Amino acid sequence: MKPLPSTPVEWLPALSSDTWFAQCPSDFQQALLSRAQLWSLDDGEALYQRGGRVSDLCCVTAGALRVGAWGEDGSASLLAYLEPYQWLGEISLLDERPRSHDVVADGPTTVLRVPEAALQAWLAEHPVHWRNLAQLACAKLRMVFMALEDIARLPLEQRLAKRLWLVAHGYGARSGPPRRLVRLPQEQLALMLGVSRQSASKALHALELQGWIRLRYGTIELLDLEALLRTSEGERGGAGPAGGLQP
Question: Per the record's keyword annotation, is Transcription included, yes or no (predicted)?
Answer without folding.
Answer: yes
